Amino acid sequence: MITQRIAIDLGSSATRIYIPRKGVVLDEPSVIAKTPDNKIAAVGTDALEMMERTPEALLATRPLSSGVVADFKMTRLMLEQFIIDSIGRFRLRKPEAMITVSSGATSTERRAVVDVAKTAGISNPFLIDAPVAAALGAGIPIADPTGNLIVHIGAGSTEIAVISLSGVVASHSIRVGGITIDNAIARYMRQNHKISIGAATAEEIKRLVASAMPRQQDETIKVQGRDTIGGMPKQIEVSSNELVDSIEGILEQIVLGIRQVMERTSPELVADIVEHGMMLTGGTAMLHKLDDLMRKVVGVPCIIAQDPLYCAVKGANIAMTNLDDYKKSFFVN
Fold it and tell me: 9-42 in b/e burial notation, b at 16+ Cβ within 10 A?
């Protein structure tokens, strides 16, 4: 009997599951809501809608932080439900899975992901570094003897790696990402407009108007929240260009990480990167004018991958279906 194989992108913001010949069958927020006695009230989208809106009897939380497991029990319960939603509750054999993990995760953090997967119903979990998976999913020929620079900007971490001959030559992981940008926007609104907004509103501002560099045509958005002084409801209008400075420090950390990786890369591979450029993947890769900023500051061509949100899970599926070809790229438990 053939064991079913699946790919899982276990992210701080969202979890995605890919099944061969079916594609992405699950794309849900990595959120779980629980009762005081630790029973599941909701997972995924239903739980996300409860965040910052729950009564005291319920708690909606993200059990993963900065790309690693922060709450073992809640991560297990959430992943178990996602697996059931994807392949069904009743199955003769437990599936095998290739799971993405932060390249900066420690051995203890990697072991936690393996243990979570096993207790959630995975018989044989393999781990693949997120930038390697993203490179595969973006269509980069990582098996070739040329240098490939991948910058995978997720919700909880940014993974930077130079890959050649299916192996990581140099890498760096920074625990900043889309959620860090959301927090910076919320902090800017609180300090400069005296308005308190939630995480969902900050994420919407980032998605709709935030920009890595000033826009020629400034965009505005109306924002509702709570007045930090009077405590009453408040509505203001915020522009994209005024938000540039609020996220500049975060983008500088990413650029610094790229520089550190390039400094540890051989001149021959750097020459390949100058010729072929860097690839941006992950949800935050879609931040307006981020590719222009990287092109200007780093000095190499910058390409945003097609479907950057799904590169990691697609690449994990490629590795899972070609285990022998990419055995240098993943961790065997």
Answer: bbbbbbbbbbbeeeebebbbbbbbbbeeeeeebb
Query: Could you tell me the residue ranges of all domains in the chain?
Result: 5-132+313-332, 143-176+247-308, 178-244
**pLDDT tens-digit readout, 281-304:** 999 999 999 999 999 999 999 999
What is the assigned CATH class of domain 143-176+247-308? alpha beta
Classify 5-132+313-332 by CATH class. Answer: alpha beta
Mean pLDDT throughout 110-133? 94
- The two structure tokens encoding residue 38: 């630790």
Taking residues 305-326, report their average pLDDT.
91
**Chain Cα centroid distance, residue 235:** 31
Residue with tokens 């950390």: 253
- How does pLDDT run across 56-114, given as a tens digit for each residue? 668 888 999 888 899 999 999 999 999 999 998 877 789 999 999 998 889 999 999 99
Q: For the structural domain made of 178-244, what CATH number should be given?
A: 3.90.640.10
The span from the CA of 8 to the CA of 128, in Å, is 10
For the beta carbon of residue 252, count every other beta carbon within 10 angstroms: 11
State yes or no: pLDDT of 118 exceeds 60.
Answer: yes
Buried b (16+ CB within 10 A) or exposed e, 82-92: bbeebbeeeee
Residue 69 to residue 169: CA distance in whole angstroms: 26
